[in-house]
Amino acid sequence: MKSRQVPVATILLIAANMAMAFYVLIHPEFVETYGLKPGHATFAQAIISPFLHQNVFHLLGNMIFLAAVGAAVELTGSAGRLLLTYAIGAAAGELTHVLLASRSVDPPILVGASGAIAGCIGAYTMRYLRLKVPVAPKFGASVLAVTLVWVGLQVIGAVVTIGEQVAVSYWAHLGGFFAGLILSLLVRPPQMAELDLKHQVLAKMNERSPAAALAAAKKHVQEHPDDPNGLRALAEAETRMGHADEAKKAWLKLATLPGITPRPEDIAELLRTGGVSSLPEVRRLQWAESFSEDHQDLSEELLNSIVADTSSPRRPDALLELVKLYHEKQPDKFEANCALLVKDYPMHAATEWLRSKGWTQ
Predict the structure, then answer these.
(1) What number does CATH give the domain 190-277?
(2) CA angle 70, 101, 93 (to 5 degrees)
(3) What is the pLDDT of residues 104-121, one digit of tens each?
(4) pTM of the prediction?
(5) DSSP E strands: which ranges in 15-166?
(6) Which of 23, 122, 34, 138 is nearest to 81 (CA)?
(7) Which CATH architecture group holds 8-186?
(8) Any idea where the domains of the chain sit in the sequence?
């Protein structure tokens, strides 16, 4: 069994920030001495200021972000890569702050790990562009979309001042973010570069014969069991060889990889092979919601796979999602599913929701 990795560097960085916070409680003058001062910056300030914070909310906010994105950067790269990203993000944030804040009459000192963490956000964005993350109940957005909103807010905060000037260096955030983004483009993690080469080998094997492609895909998955591209190649090779059960196992493994959002075509294959019934209904509901706008046919099939099981506790939820899917698009199916939901679950919360909308009596 593959051992679970521990993000050691992330934990150490959080510990260093927390330790500095406790030290500042005893020596509050430390912030004034070692906060980065535009126009009078020292090397010691540049090293220490990223570990200083204004208050407990500033500290906790940064540490929550570091725990989330720092661990992702470390576990998909290495501890050294995270530390390099953190350091370059901090330095770029400081440099941006010094260059732009020094124009002010009374420029504020810079403290906090925000620039360093923004660098990690930049690296995380490059790694997980297509990953969907929940941003509201029953609504998700890609990491790219969320990041673009975040960048937009930083730009607005940097150029628009409402009321008194606040002690938030938006320019430092942006400087750190773009440094992390550029670093991620220039220096790919060794394991990702290795995977790229192996993916090219898999593609060449496909040109030779189905048997060669299957042998190469099996070897690749043995070495990289959590590589979605490798599992996809294995499933496709098993399908070409006529191994339906083995193909279904590969599609299932791909669909259940942690931190990976399956592609619509992956779900389509899972539905075609009948493997979707082996998946938890909660996951099928989540996928159905995420595909409801751009891939209504997939969403419909996923929901119907739940509705088909009359003993399923998630059946009324699936019926409700079908009703929403058909509303104002397919009146006949809308009415039929409304009637079925009311008939089979007259007192269920899903039925009450229908009544609150005026969609049924």
Answers:
(1) 1.25.40.10
(2) 15
(3) 667 778 888 889 999 999
(4) 0.55
(5) 132-136, 139-142
(6) 122
(7) Up-down Bundle (1.20)
(8) 8-186, 190-277, 280-361
